[in-house]
Amino acid sequence: MTKLLQKAFEEASKLPENEQDTLGRILLDELSSERRWEELFAGSHDLLAELAEQAVAEHRAGRTEKLDPAKL
What highest taxon heads this organism's lineage (predicted)? Predict the structure, then answer.
């Protein structure tokens, strides 16, 4: 465990029990969300590559337009 994380846990341990539980839930939810995002992103590589190939093919076929930021 890093010194920073250890210090954060030491400070959190001084909080009332209900606040510790809230902080614990937030941390666990965040870690779970991060893991899920990594799994989804890792599994999307083939799809992203296919979409990129389609975009390049459409551009080469002249079916794209230059983006005008002023029209956004």
Answer: Bacteria
